Amino acid sequence: MKIGIFDPYLDDIGGGERYMMTIASCLSQKNSVDVFWDSPKDLRKIEERFSLNLSKVNLVPNIFDPFFSVKKKLVKSREYDAIVFLSDGSIPFLLSKKLFIHIQRPIVEISITFKDKMKLKRVDKVFVNSEFTKKYVDKVYLVDSQLLYPPVSIFGNTKKKENMILHVGRFRVLNVNAKDYKKQQVMIDTFKDLVDKGLKNWKFILAVSLPDIKDPNFVFMQDSTKGYPIEFLINSSNEKLWEVGSKAKIYWHASGFGEDLEKHPELAEHFGISTVEAMGVGAVPVVINAGGQKEIIKDGENGFLWNSISEFEKKTLKLIDDEKLWTKLSDAAFQRSKYFSEDKFYDRVIELIK
Hints:
Blueprint (H helix, E strand, L loop, with lengths): L1 E5 L8 H13 L4 E5 L3 H10 L7 E4 L9 H8 L4 E5 L11 E6 L10 H7 L4 E4 L2 H11 L4 E2 L16 E7 L13 H13 L6 E7 L6 H8 L6 E5 L3 H8 L4 E4 L19 H7 L4 E5 L4 H4 L7 E3 L2 H13 L1 H15 L4 H11 L2
C-alpha cells in the first residue's frame, strides 16, 4: 500500500508528533509511507527525540500547505491507497482510496456543518487517543470513533531508586491557549510547601521541553525554585530521561488543576504518555483526577489520584512515609504500564488501517 501521513504540528515536538510518526514508522515496515512536510530537519528532530526509526519513511512536499492549489492537492491525494490525517478539528476532502482521521484532543468549540457531514462520508475511520477524547469527538462529529491509545516506551521496572519526584512535560503547547498548561508552577509551589513543612532529603526534577530557554515566563519559573532541591532537565533525549527517570520513586502531573474543565476540557491531559512511561520504570504516579489520567490509574491500586492541593500533598507524603505501600504500588504501576506498550500500539495500528 502507498500511505500518506499528515501532522500539521510536526515542527512542535510533542506527544502528538510522536504518535503520528510512530504510526509512520510502523506502517513503513511493509508499506510505502510518505509524510507530507517540507522540512527534513523537523523529522530528524522527532526521530532523535523519541528514538524512532524513520529510515523507511519518505518526506514529500506538503500538499496541505496553503500555497498548494486545491486541484493539485486532490490530484496528488488520488495516488494514495490511504491517507492518515491529524485533524485540528477540520475535515479534509481528499481523493485517496481510504481516509483516516485522527483527533487527539476533546473538541467542544466546533459546530459541524452540512458540508462537513458530506466530507465525513468519505472518512473510513475516525480514531482517538483516549476515552476522554472520544466522549467529546463522538458527540460533536456524530461518529463512533475508534480508540488507539498512544505508544509508550516501557523500559522495565528498576529498584535503584532515589528520593526523587519527577515530572515530564512541555512548557508551551502551540495549540492550547494557557500560560501554565502543565501546571508546572503549581507543582513547584506544592513541593516548596512540603519542604517548608519539614520534608527533607527529597528532590523534585522537572524534565521540560521548550523552543526558547530564555522565555521570560520559563526563566521566572526557574528563579522561583532557588533555595529548594528542585532541578530542571531541558530538552533532553529519551535516553537521558530514562536514565534520570528510572531513579524516581514518584511521578507528578497536574494539567487541568484550577480550570473549568466542563467548558475547556482541552486543558486537562488528553491521555498521559509521560505518566505511563514513569509507571514503566516503577515510579508511582500521584496525578490529578482529570482527563485521560483516570483511564490509566486506579486510585490506591497502581497510583493515586487527587482533587485538591491538600489531597495532593497528603497522598504524596503517604508514599514517602510508607515504603511497603510504595513498593506495592510501584509493582502494580509497572504491570499496568504494559497495557500501553509500543507493541500493542503497532498491532492496533495494523488492525485499524487495512
